Records
---
Amino acid sequence: MKTAANTISRNAQCWCGSGKKYKKCHLLKDQKQVPSSAEKYRHKGRSIILKTEAQIDGIRKSCQLTKALLDMVEERILEGVTTSEIDEWVHRETLAKGATPAPLNYGRGQGRQRIPFPKSICTSLNDVICHGIPNSKPLQNGDIVNVDVTCDLNGFFGDASRMFIIGDVPDRTRELVEVTRECLNLGIEQVCPENKLGDIGHAIQSHAEKHGFSVVRDFAGHGVGLEFHEAPQVLHYGQSGIGEALRENMIFTIEPMINMGGFECKILGDGWTAVTLDGTLSAQWEHTMLVTENGVEVLTA
Ligand code: MF3
Ligand code: CO
Ligand code: CO
C-alpha cells in the first residue's frame, strides 16, 4: 500500500513545506496515520485495523523496547526489592529511550468516574490477577509476581508481561507459573491466517484445565499497536473453529490469566487491582504478535 511514509525518502524535504527533512517533520505522523484505503473490518461494532508496513515497523520497535525493559527487570528483580522500585527503573529507562509508559494515567471509566492508573507498570503479586499497583512493600521469599510493561514509542504501542518467582515456592506454585507460560505458547501456535480467535482460546483453556487450573474470564487479550487497547478481544477460553478469522497484518496480544482455584475475580477499592475471589494464586504471561502470511511473528520476543 502506498502512503507518504513509504514513498518519500527520509532525508528528502517534508511534503508540508516546512523546509525540514521528512524524517524530522511529518514521517512519524504519516506512519501512524491509518490511510483511508487501509483495510479495516468490523468486529462487535469496533474496527479491527490491518496494519500497514510503516505501522508494523513502528510497532515492532516499540515491542522490542518493551522486551528490553522486561529483560532489565529480569536481571535486577530479587527478594527485598519493592514493586515501586521496579516501577521507577522502568519509568526512567522508558523515558531515556524516548518513549512513554502507556499505563501512567491510563483511564478506566468516563468523566468524573474516570480512575487514572497511577503508575508506569502493573505488578500483580500472588492472588492479584492483573492491574496491580506498584507499592513500597518488599518482595518476599515465596512470592510470585507478574510485571506488565507497555511502551508508547512515537505513538506505537508494545505490550508484554512475564512472571517472576522470588526464592523458593511449592511445586504446585511453580507448576502454575509454568503451565501459564505453556498456555501462552500454545495460544501463539494457533496464530496463522487459516485460524480463528476461538482456536487460541480453546488451546489455552484445554491446557490450563488439564492441569486442574482455571482460566480468568473477565479480562482478555486485545488488538494493540496504534492504541493501547484495540479490537478485537482475544478470549483465553472458548471453542475451536468459532469467532473472528485471523488475517495477515492483524496485531494483538495473548495474555492468559490462570488461577490455582476458581476463575472468579473482584476489583479492590483502588478501582484497578483485580484479585481472585477465593484468594488463590494467579499467574499471567503476555506477548504482542503480528499475523504473517504463513503464521506469526512474536513482536515482544
Ligand atoms: N498492560 C495491561 C494489558 O495487558 C493493561 C494495563 S492497563 C493499566 O492489557 F492501566 F493498568 F496499565
Ligand atoms: Co495487554
Ligand atoms: Co500488558
Note: The two ends are 27 Å apart (CA to CA).
---
Amino acid sequence: MMIILLVLALLPFTTALQNGLALTPPMGWLTWQRFRCITNCQKYPSECISEDLIKRTADIMLSEGYLDAGYNYVGIDDCWLEKTRDKRNRLVPDRERFPNGMKAIGDYLHNKGFKFALYQDYGNKTCMGYPGVLGYEAIDVQTFAEWDVDYIKLDGCYVDISKMDTGYPYFGKLMNESGRPMVYSCSWPAYQKKPDYDSIAEHCNLWRNWDDIQDSWSSLSSIMTWFAENQDTIAQYAGPGRWNDPDMLIIGNFGLSLDQAKVQMAIWSILAAPLFMSVDLATIRPEFKEILLNRDIIAIDQDSLGKQGLRVWNKSMTEIWSRELSDGSYAVAFVNRRDDGTPTVMKASFEVMNLPEQTYKVQDLYKEDEDRFFGPDGEFYTRVNPSGVKYFKFVPKISNDVEEKTYFTSRI
Ligand code: GLA
C-alpha cells in the first residue's frame, strides 16, 4: 500500500519521456550553423561534414578545456547520409566522409569522454534532402542505439504538420523502448503556429521553438525579441529535463562583434538555453573562446533550479533580463540594442530588475567592472555599449561585515 501511495505521489512529477536526461540544459558542439552542408572534402578539407571534422573538434574540445567547462555533446547535424538506404532499409552514413561508419564515431567520442549527438528528420527527407525516418522509425531508432548515439535531434522538414502531434511522441516512445538512454531534441514547435507545449514538454528533452539562427546580429536580435514576446507562453515549460531551445551559439564566427557575442552568451544563460557551439574551434579567436568558456556564466545557464529567466523591462531599445537562481541569487543582464555610437547609461530599481529588496554583492560576470555592493537605498546604474550587454550576478549579502559600508550606488 505504501509503495502504491508513493508511486501515486510521484506521478505528477514524472514525464512520459522518463529518461532522466538533460537535467540541466545540454551543452556541446554541433556542425550546422558554421559548417552547414559542406560535402566537398576535396575543395574544403577542413570544413566538410566528415569523420575528420568530428575527431579534430573533439580533440580540441578535450585539450583546450571545452569538455572540462561542460561542453560534452559532439553532434553531427544534417548531411551525413548516403542518399539511399541499404538493402535492409537501414540508414547508411556517407561512405567517403564517414569511411568507418557511425559506430566508430561513437566509440571515438566515448573514449574521450564525450557523448554522441546525431541529426535526423521526422519527414521522408531531411531539410537538405537526405533520407528521413518516416516509415522507418523503428529501424532507425534501433540503428541509432546500435551506433551508441546519445542524443537525437529530430527535425521537421517534409512532414505533414498535422501529424507532428502524434509522430514526435511516437518516435520518443520508440527511443524509450530502445533501452539506450538518448536525449530527445524536437523541432516540433518550430514548424507549428500554435504548438501544444504541454505535450511537447512531456515528450521531448528540448525543443526548437522558432526560426534558425543565422550568422548575424539581426538574426540573434530577432530570436531574443521572439523569446521575450513569447515568454508568458513558453518559459513555464522549462525545467530539469525539458528546455526551450533558441538555437546554436554563433559566437566566434563571422557575424558578431565581441560585444554582440557577449550578449548571446548572457541571454542564452538567462534563458536556461542549451549551449551548442557551432564554430571552427581550430581557428576561433581567443577573445571569443574566452566568452564560450566563461565558467560563471555557464554556471548560471546550468543552475539546478532550471528556471528560465525573463525580459523584465524594455524601453527605448534598452532591456533588462533577469533570472532567479537556486542559491537565492539573481542573474541580471542589461542589454543595449541601440546603435548610438556611445555607451548608454541604464538605471534600474529593485522592482524593475525583479529583485527582492535586500543588500547584494554584485559581481560583473564579464569582469569589466569592479564588484560592488547594492542596497535598498539606491538605484542601480550601469553603462552599456551599443549592441552590447552588462551582465551581473546579484548575490544576497548575509553578513554585516565592513565592506557593506561601501554600497556602490554612485551615478556614472
Ligand atoms: C533545419 C534546422 C537547422 C538544421 C537544418 C539542417 O533548418 O532548423 O537547425 O538542422 O535544418 O538541414
Note: Residues 32, 77-78, 119, 126-128, 155, 187, 212 surround alpha-D-galactopyranose (CB under 6 Å).
